[in-house]
Design goal:
single chain, alpha+beta, six-stranded antiparallel beta sheet
């Protein structure tokens, strides 16, 4: 059963949508490996800051079936697919890796390019899978994070913990 890493992001009702997504993912796939949550500026457009994190899970589902389920979760939380690519969103869930798969599978490019391009993806991935190796570069995610030009994108720990029982969305 492959280990899959997903990125989650939201900049609209961030706490509500991140918590809801984690609950749904756990209900569908069982135990999750969850990174710390980071806050980052919007990339590619002017907008409110995002909450971003990475989740690891194990599934026997294929890439296409998993992608369809993730789209359904996004849409259940108000994701508007007609909006421009770079725009505010309630919930964004992307498959970053699916085991050691490389190439296009079911219309999805793996590993996702954003893994090495965006701090808000690479940093939380390095937090929970630092010793794992990128399927194409064969370097660890920790090595990639150490080599990343961290001045390119602002990223900081969020003052938000998804499992905080005192939150109105818990």
């Amino acid at each position: 059963m492959p280990r899959v890493y997903l990125s989650l992001g939201s900049n609209i009702a961030r706490e509500k949508h991140i918590r809801a997504a984690l609950r749904e993912l756990e209900d569908r796939y069982g135990l999750l490996l969850v990174s710390p949550v980071y806050e980052s500026e919007a990339v590619g457009f002017e907008g409110d800051p995002f909450f971003n994190l990475v989740v690891g899970l194990d599934t026997e589902k294929g890439v296409g079936e998993l992608a369809a389920e993730l789209r359904a979760i996004e849409e259940a939380h108000g994701r508007d697919r007609r909006a421009p690519k770079f725009s505010a969103r309630t919930l964004d869930i992307d498959i970053l890796t699916w085991g050691n798969a490389c190439g296009e599978i079911d219309g999805i490019r793996l590993p996702r390019d954003e893994v090495l391009k965006n701090a808000f993806v690479l940093r939380p991935l390095a937090d929970i899978a630092g010793n794992d190796r990128h399927p194409e570069t064969v370097r660890s995610y920790a090595e990639h994070w150490d080599a990343y030009d961290q001045s390119r994108q602002r990223l900081w720990p969020a003052a938000f913990t998804p499992d905080d029982p005192d939150s109105e969305y818990a």
